[in-house]
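Supplementary Methods S3. Input chains for the assembly prediction are listed below.
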Amino acid sequence: MPRLVSHPDEVKITSRRFGLGATDIEKYIALDGYKAVQAAIAKGPEWIIAEMKASGLRGRGGAGFPTGLKWSFVPKQSEKPKYVLVNGDESEPGTCKDHLIFLYDPHAVIEGTMIAGIAIGAKLGFIYLRGEYRYLLKIMEKAVADAYAKGFLGKNIFGSGIDFDVVTQTGAGAYEVGEESALMESLEGKRGVPRIKPPFPAVVGLYGGPTVINNAETIASVPHIMLMGGEAYAKLGTERNGGTRLFGISGHVERPGVYELPMGYNLKKAIYDVAGGIRGGKKLKAVVPGGSSTPVMTADEIDVGLDFDQMGKAGTMLGSGGIVVLDETVCIVEFALRTIQFYQHESCGWCIPCREGTDWLKKSIGRLHAGGAVDKDIDNIRYLAENMLGRTFCPLGDAAAMPTIGFVQKFRKEFEDHLNGKGCPYKHAREEEAALV
Amino acid sequence: MATEKKTIFSPELAARFDKLVTLYPMRRSALVPMLLYAQDEVGYISKEVVAEVAERLGLRENDVESVLSYYSMLRTKPAGKYNVQVCTNISCMLRDGYGILEHCKKRLGIDHKEVTADGLFSLEEVECIGACCWAPAIQVNYDFYDELTPEKMDQILDDYKAGRGKETV
Amino acid sequence: MADVTFTVDGKKLTAPAGTLLIEACKAAGIEVPAFCYYPHLAVQAACRMCTVRLEKVPKLQTACTTPVTEGMVVYTDTDEVRQARKATIELLLGNHPLDCPVCDKGGECELQDMTFKYGAGESKYVEIKQHRDEQQWSPVVYYDRPRCILCYRCVAVCGAGMDVWALAVESRGARSVIAPNGSDHLNCEECGMCIDICPVGALTSDTYRYHTRPWEMNHVATVCTHCGDGCKTTLGVRTAADGSEIIRGNNRDKSGMNGDFLCIKGRYAFDFANHTERLTKPLVRQADGKLAPVSWEEALDFAARGLREARDAKGGKAIGVIGSNRTTNEENYLLQKFARSVLGTNNIDHHRTADYAAFAAALKGHAGREASLRDFVTAPAILLLGNDPTEQHPALAWQLRTNVRLNHARIYVANHRDIKLRRQAKAAVTLPQTGYAQFVEYLAGKDGAFKGDDATAAFRNAVKKEESLLIAFGSEFRGRDIQALVAFGLSLPNVKFACLGDYANSRGAADMGVLPDLLPGYVPVDKAAQFAGEYGNSLPAEPGLDLVQMFDAAGRGELAAMYVVGANPVARYGIDAAALKDTFLVVQDMFLTETAVLADVVFPAANLYEKAGTVTNTYGDLQLVKKAADKAGTRADFELIVRLAEKMGAAPKSMVPFGRGVRADVGQTRGAQSGEADRHAVWLVAHHLELKLSPFDPFAIFDEIQRLVPAYNVPRLNLLAGNDEHLKSELVQIDTGATRRDMVLPANDGLYTSGTLGNYSAKLKEVLASHTTVTKPAETAAD
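Predicted structure tokens for the full assembly:
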């Protein structure tokens, strides 16, 4: 069972029911559950969207698109049915926040889905979890069944005359399906290859109908925003970055875990105070601040606020909120290799730059790390990554290119140390250490 | 229409599929979950599974194969009864995920995507499984084990061998 | 949609709003490269080659997915754009094998061309390439995985285009492959469209692979000799020891009515021409009863003497002539002229596969009511009665599928079989095999004629509501049934018809009067006045014997001689060889067919790929065939007919009016002073056409056809330029149609058969065998 952590700097909104037994519907109700949806029904779609806009909530999947705005793009009139789709295909390395939401607060996801449905006029919501999350699907399934048993889902919810159904399902192992249009393809029983945009899902989405698609954390935040009001939620964060966010801090820290911190919270403090600093008193080498696709930061770049805009200014991204901390013992080339290996494995293969680029980068960086590099390799790696950037069908290519460029740019010396048949100095050091023992 | 259908699945699974296809606006939406559930029961996606799933959804078999080959959890060859999936992605790597993988290889005497002679275990190095803050982590079939050490790993394998392991399906 | 104005590379352009940028650029002569995009078929944005810079848009955009909008400013050739394309090619070439020197596609490969253009000259790739062995997927299709650039065009054309869906992408990422539906082989229609559409040499054809290089061939666009659709096929020919041989058939020239389409026969079934059993010497039956090769002079003398003796002794009524479904209009015309004016007989017929005469009679007095094959790709609604176009008229099936895909055309199918086109149909009705006429009565409003249900009634209502409709009907309709169907159709607004017959020039044979009762243009034999100028005044005025009657007469010993051109009636009609024992038989053919083997004289004939002329498809689209190949020892049927006529005492100039008029004057002796006619001659030669220097020039006869058969008097230049011209069917006047004897014998060819010709195509036979083999469960040895 994932360990829950706590820190006084946390502002627990979305995580407030974690560990309180809220998987039980009665307990959830006792903890203000299903009040928000009733308020939403009473006040209507326009109010919901206004509150969402006021909340400053930006998509928690990584792209950070304002949620209220996204919902407002859905046409009011539509010949085809509209849908809500919850993206629980959490697969970005370094990210495990939705895992906890499904585990500890499944009803919040259901309630958020319902509110989104009411806001856009959808009658059916899908909650899609990654395939590996089978045990979480079971929790979600039970929560959905309990909600039906209570009459919260189905026909005429809360006597409103509105019908709303929820279907839960999992994927079967594919990072790419986290991309919204690929997710829709997968839900339609196809290969998880993204769709050509425009049209955007808000206009033509699932089964051709207008669709709101949001990350699970985004959706789970919605009931809280309804209850506390958009403005109050916004005030918790910084300008244009409303509210709080679940940050998963992993890697070489003393107290790894998922912490709910206000938007704009200082990254350095998050690592050193909240997560207890670098494990074993070692020196910090680098931070991958928002999941493996975000460009790496060096130890002296981390005095920056954790919101979309400040991180952007710092030359990286807030991303999925998965902060991966690397101490001085890490070989950056090896780390870069493991990162590109992931994207190579997960590239759907649809477009040339991503399919061929990730494969080529994996081979080149792998050879460099293994000691088989040739002089032009480092420039070549950077050239390849730069020529993938912005040229691929979907953001996966960027997700592979951006960190690669960052690693080469900021840690070029480490790459050079691998040149000329020398291979990995860290590996040699580890081997020497092992030989001494 | 209560026509008796010939099926290679258990009555429970067949009934589940009958229900599943009704949940979606389009039948083929049930494809990915159906393949996964079929794999859970049969052990892998056999030709027969492809044929029946295709038939149930009104799809061509090569369409089903195209979809199934896309998803990394779906396999067309049998795995061990307990498929040990070791994450070595960045967060786990930083906390010795590779050490756990090596330990499992030694302990089980098999390599990536291999199955032990008795068919009990198979081993797989997998990408991020969403347990980064509790690294290193593995899954045995669908069950998570986290903050692992070689010793904890041994205990887990012993438990499964003795039939005491968790079995979420 | 309204036009919008936008700027590309500084040029102001205008196009209808919504036009894809890549198409708008192409129309303005600005090339935007692409691998995965294919017009009207595949918009995939996968290859990223067509990226362009749009003003005010942060990233490069794909021109294949961007619709033009008002005021849009586009740059297609900046350094940034060129670099993006170069990088994409570098990425592709990383794993591409670069075996161009032996690759079939070398020289006409899109990847080669783009590499050349965008200059990815230096290879940065030093990793080991992923190799996989080449796979044979079918008797015609090979897949070379490492060459594949995964543009998915093949998947699109097989699925959306052909409705076969035999190809799919399997696995993902760099491990992605194109996979056939039978796991290691294809279960498909073997059309080879996937090979044609492949931009590189990943998909290759068994008939062509490793045979030659593209630049070693002459590419001749001509008309397929197989079914009645008249697809344009491009034959790749190369000099051989005995002439020039066909190495390849494909759809390189996409200007034909078939657009992007070509079926297995148009693509691969040219191999009959290279068959080892081709006759290359005239044969004459010797005293010992055996056929033996003789000189041309001897054979011609012998044949002419036999025919002349029969005519002189017993009269024209004792001679029969059987024409062909695959010879040109000019040859058909000449054959009936020869029969009527030299042999003095109306005993002339051919294997009729559709009742074109009844169709012409039914349409009498109605202008513009015949549908071209082109109409089927744009018509809003089509009623298909009988026939199975997927098997019998593959190009028509392609047109219908394309029309449904692009224009949401409504197709109504009534058939006694479960034909594949039902999948595209808006409504379909299953009829009893003999219920077509009754169904037409029902459609026309007679409720009692056909036992229908609600669905049938809805079908009828929907058909009747159409404001514009094409009606295509198969050989299920003949004589009076055609008349009834046409009458029903004419009761609806804006209806056009198509009568579906088999073989490359069945329609031409009927139009040219290879019939016992009708002269060219369906003029009854007793109304021959307009032909007097060319034929003389002694034409027989009584209708002659039809094909079956001729053999009956032979069996009774009443047919002294018979002349068979490019036909095999003995096999097709199951004629007893003994019936011909007293008949002097002259046969012209490529092979020693079941008919030829009984002959007294056999002339080795050229086929449709070895001569020039015109053919008419079943829809009345007239097209030029061009001489592609050449086989030493054979002669065109045209020449043979002229020579026989001469040997029988007819003046060649009366048979073929060569050297008449401006168009026939080549003026080759005028040297530097040569004018238009010379340029025309040069042009003709360059286009593999024959000059009008001799009585063997088919265009001299085409002049006569255009004079005497008004429907064929279509603009000549367009035809010579290789375009199709629809016949002016309103000029056909006939009133005997419904009462004639029904002589229609459908060929019932499928995708892999082609009458007698199919027996000599090794590739068709191989494919047919592979499709009829029943897979038995593997037997395991007893142990």
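DSSP finds 17 helices and nine strands in chain A. The beta strands of chain A are 83-88, 124-129, 165-170, 211-215, 244-251, 257-262, 284-288, 297-298, 322-327.
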